[in-house]
Specification:
Length: about 450
């Protein structure tokens, strides 16, 4: 089923490109060129296609909160003791910090080497010109208070991943402390994991349709011109992400060994899904199952992956430095090495404070631009192609979190046991995350 899903998504992606461009040029031709009527008609068509994509992403969000809660609580409960939990947590945070620094630094180096904004020489906009993106200045009080949920139910209702993680940590540790009395609750949480993954299997059947609708609507409305205008910037950024993939997978190869090739193969499905829908969340369930098949114990994958979605968004990190320096270059603003290093550190901190915020990268960039007296309206330069950039960011986030889970599992267990089942999804899902009749229990991990 996994291979079929990947094939269907690829077919949907190609079909979406063809139909989207055909609609774009067809409507413009019928209106005799770039008229306001053509623009309105294309926007209306894109709105119809977006209905399908929005429904799919809402279904994904419906899954995320209970799935993160159930898998994380079950993973902690079966961790065995709080010492193991603390050790895995420390290793995860250490990896996330290092990976974030590598991503930010790589973006900083490449944008200075490739200089995609140099020569554009855009005039400085008026000081009061707004970008349309709400800024979120870094505030230490807001950062720490936002981490802790006022209500576990509210955190789940709002899909606040970081708050759900904190809530799940308390529940999981409490279950471990209570011991035998909590055994029925552990069985219930295990059952909830299996149920949610079965729900995931149902939802994922609609993924190719959602991909087709997303690509068709985007290209129908915007056409190929929006990509061509900033092609060098996009090409430079995608080159940077490709290099980041090589770095992350290379490090994984050094630590995990030759089985890293299998990891790359197993995450193709969630990676393609994240790329085509421009949503890291859409790939979360599939990434969890791919790690399961690769041999990452459920107790570790269920703990590390949700943390990664809050602290280890490598694709977003490289984009932040790349886009911020690009905007400065486009306006002819020279930044000293000291300012760029300061910017890197500022982005390192502020990016951790807005986990779960929609279009979080743009929000952080908007705040950073004003911090360094770069016109905030510079975001308007990249807003038009942000969807296409977000596709790459989302895919890179999947790679970064999959590698993090595999590496931390290798450090913790010393080995990665392959799963014999050839399928990742469907009613015969492997290991501790599949339906009860076909799985290895968390207790056996």
């Amino acid at each position: 089923m996994a291979k079929k899903l990947t094939t269907f998504i690829l077919i949907a992606l190609v079909a979406g490109v063809i139909l989207g461009l055909a609609l774009h040029f067809g409507v413009r031709s019928s209106y005799g060129g770039d008229s306001a009527g053509a623009e309105e008609q294309l926007k209306t068509l894109a709105g119809y296609f977006s209905i399908v994509t929005t429904i799919f992403l809402r279904l994904i969000k419906m899954i995320i909160a209970p799935l993160v809660f159930a898998t994380l609580v079950a993973g902690i409960a079966h961790m065995g003791d709080t010492a193991a939990l603390g050790r895995v947590g420390a290793r995860a945070i250490g990896w996330f910090i290092c990976a974030s620094l590598v991503s930010l630094t790589l973006g900083l180096i490449l944008v200075n080497l490739l200089q995609p904004g140099v020569g554009l020489d855009f005039p400085l906009p008026p000081a009061d010109t707004a970008s349309g993106v709400e800024k979120a200045a870094f505030n230490l009080k807001d950062f720490f208070t936002h981490v802790f949920p006022a209500s576990g139910i509210e955190a789940m209702a709002n899909n606040e991943i970081l708050q759900i993680v904190i809530f799940s940590l308390f529940i999981g540790v409490a279950i471990t402390a209570v011991g035998e009395k909590a055994a029925p609750l552990i069985r219930a949480v295990d059952a909830l994991v299996h149920v949610m993954l079965q729900v995931t299997n149902y939802v994922m059947r609609f993924a190719p349709i959602a991909v087709f609708a997303a690509v068709t609507g985007t290209l129908a409305e915007r056409g190929p011109t929006i990509i061509g205008n900033l092609a060098y910037f996009m090409g430079s950024f995608y080159l940077g992400m490709l290099l980041l993939w090589c770095v992350l997978i290379g490090i994984c190869f050094l630590i995990v060994g030759k089985r890293t090739r299998l990891l790359v193969r197993y995450i193709r499905d969630p990676l393609l899904l994240a790329f085509s829908t421009a949503s890291s969340e859409a790939a979360y369930p599939r990434t969890l199952e791919a790690l399961d098949k690769f041999g990452v114990p459920p107790r570790i994958a269920s703990f590390v992956l949700p943390l990664g979605y809050s602290f280890n968004l490598d694709g977003s990190m490289i984009y932040m430095t790349f886009a911020t320096i690009f905007i400065a270059q486009a306006y002819g603003i020279d930044l000293t090495l000291g300012q760029e290093i300061t910017m890197l550190l500022v982005l390192m901190i502020t990016s951790k404070g807005i986990a779960g915020v929609p279009r979080a990268s743009l929000v952080v960039i908007a705040a950073t631009l004003s911090f360094f007296d770069i016109p905030e309206a510079g975001l308007l330069l990249i807003l038009g192609i942000d969807h296409f950039l977000d596709m790459g960011r989302s895919a890179t986030n999947v790679v970064g979190n999959a590698v993090a889970s595999a590496v931390i599992s290798k450090w913790e267990t010393g080995r990665l046991d392959p799963i014999e089942s050839p399928e990742i999804d469907g009613p015969h899902a492997p290991s501790g995350h599949g339906p009860a009749q076909n799985v290895t229990s968390f207790d056996q991990v």
